[in-house]
């Protein structure tokens, strides 16, 4: 499967300044492995050495937070958009 | 109709209205809880009142003392706190991102709050950090810190949740916005204690896309009340709803006679997705405020593309 990965500003420096890159895999975890193969500077940024998502990172498959799907095991399909966003204080309030 | 001693007695007990006409699935109902009916106009009246009540109970605040309260807000908590501060006799300072709607700024001034602006690029995150800095400098000021104040959760666990259960015990899904997480955690916890089969769906704006200037992910933030109350285990789903869809649904709410704010459009979009996926659902969706504060954005009457562009630069959630 080929998906589009959208990178937040803080990660673009590790990906040649690009805001969006194609990557391959059947799950979100495999997509991230491919991403790190392409851009070794991204190692450890999104997925920790322990193999879990960084605490202050939210990852979305087409706008659904993967923490509430199957986390890094969440399946992806061709053409899905995977967005990585920093967790920040939200709006309401 | 009883005579109320104070306008503060009008906080809570908001109506639940059937808006199933907007459901894409004939077997799934959608019920909207209209938090705009609160006296200062939003769900945050509950939170503001609960936090102040708690601080008065533990002796931190004394009514009529003129004590200074400092809090960060994108508007609604500030407006609720401002109204309560006026009634109870406190001085309120609100740290606010500069890109909130004009009405939000004016409403704070109506109640006599002093406003300190933070840059638009920092969003709520920036305002919160600044309030934390100011509070650390002025230790004699009271900083409720809604993101970490358990009274925020309690307001919903003891108020909003029981009201929903009383009015609609057949509820199968709760859909609400995620900001401080107070509504989702408080109501979600209450409903799941009554019926563990209830599902909790969170809707959020793409806040992380809007906040610039984070040097790395370690500067990120998760509300302490979300962590402390096991928020991650309470939520069953969390989705982003973008400005365009939020405004489209704010407009569709007009078809059922509901004039609500833009974040209400976002959560109803979430309820619509839920109804499309689940048969036989009874979805309760919490509409945070009314439409009044957003008239200047042209949300209902302006060209959709232009309104969406403007919304991207405005704090509406």
Q: What does this 3D model show about the protein?
A:
The complex is a heterodimer of chains A (93) and B (317). Chain A has 93 residues and is α+β, with helices and mostly antiparallel strands. Helix content of chain A is 16%, strand content 25%. Chain A is built from 2 helices and 5 strands, in the order E-H-E-H-E-E-E. The mean pLDDT of chain A is 93. Helix content of chain B is 42%, strand content 15%. In chain B, helix 2 packs parallel to helix 3, helix 10 packs across helix 11 (262-277) and helix 10 (243-255) crosses helix 12. The radius of gyration of chain B is 19 Å and the shape is globular. The two termini of chain B are 33 Å apart. The interface between A and B is large, with 25 and 53 residues.
Percent in strands of chain B: 5-15%
Order of secondary-structure elements of chain B? EEHEHEHEHHEHEHHHEHHEH
Q: How many H/I helices of chain A?
A: 2
Calculate the terminal CA-CA distance of chain A, rounded to whole Å.
Answer: 40 Å
Mean pLDDT of chain A: 93
Q: What's the count of strands of chain B?
A: 9
Q: DSSP helix count of chain B?
A: 12
What proportion of the residues of chain A is helical, as a percent range? 10-25%
Name the overall outline of chain B.
Answer: globular
Beta-strand portion of chain A reads 15-25%
Largest β-sheet summary of chain A: 5 strands, mixed
Q: Percent helix among the residues of chain B?
A: 40-55%
Structural class of chain B: alpha/beta
Oligomer: heterodimer
Poorly predicted regions of chain A: none
Largest interface, with counts of residues having CB < 8 Å to the other chain, equals: A-B, 25 and 53 residues
